[in-house]
Amino acid sequence: MNKQYKIKTGLINFTNCLPFNFSIEREKPENIELVYGTPAELNKLMSEGSIDVAPISSFEYLMNRDNYTLIKTACISSDGECGSVILFSKAGFRELNNCKIGLPADSASSAAMLKVILNEYDNDLKSIIFEPHNYEQTPDQFLNSGFKAVLFIGDNALKNNLAFNKVFLAFDIGKLWKDLTGYPAVFGTWAARNSWMEKNRDNFEKINNLIPKAIETGLGLYFNRILNHASGKLCLNQELIRDYLTKKIRYNYTERHEKSLELFKELYSRLQKSKKLHFVKI
After folding, report:
1. First-residue to last-residue Cα distance in the chain
2. Which of 57, 156, 159, 170 has the CB geometry, 3.0–4.6 Å to 108, for a possible disulfide?
């Protein structure tokens, strides 16, 4: 790699990104500059051209795929229950009409996937008000202040799931997607900006290989340290973190993931064309 140019690489401070983040932070490749942000922030930085490579939301990739080259050596997904994209609700999943649902401002894929699933389960999206939130309240506070349901993602979902999944209904979006489609839910895709990749093909190939190796190292060499770090940060049992990172979250990218992405695009496009999103307020 060219030592004079640093590849601006996005990192998400979510536990599901720790295997990659921890490895890169410890091994410090000299030609990589790390830029941290939420999924929504990295989406914006990538679309602006402020960073070169990042784990962007799969929704951002699908809606703007002409701008990106997909890195097919890794993704962030679940093949069923994921544990960190949770809709806390006071009503059953088919009973969410004429209500207000909170959507996190740091989400793109999860919010879009939720809308697709709600529609496929015959909810009337025109009757639903989707209101953004920034986790300023706990799930019970949201659900006791006018919301019928509220979506939490990432570490905020992990931290609150155990506390509230017995108090309210808790719908795991990864499981709902798998039940609906038969495919894994792809929440994040690694991608590079086309304009950068075309001028840096050698660097692209090297980072294309670096990402899965870093994830493998995180799940191997650094895994006990990652468990300690995540457990302390989230105040959760290490076994829960272990189960989350090794059984729920998947990092490989396969033909099934590709088909899932195409179906996501198809279902969301169909939803747009139906104009059922016309009166949705987010």
Report:
1. 42
2. 57
Homologous superfamily assigned to 7-78+185-263? Periplasmic binding protein-like II (3.40.190.10)
Spatial CB neighbours of 185, under 8 Å, sequence gap ≥ 6: 77, 78, 79, 82, 85, 113, 173, 174, 177, 178, 260
Q: What is the pLDDT of residues 46-63, one digit of tens each?
A: 999 999 999 999 999 999
Residues 163, 116: contact at Cβ < 8 Å? no
The pLDDT tens digits of the residues spanning 185-239 come to 999 999 999 999 999 999 999 999 999 999 999 999 999 999 999 999 999 999 9
Question: Is pLDDT at 1 greater than 70 in this prediction?
Answer: no
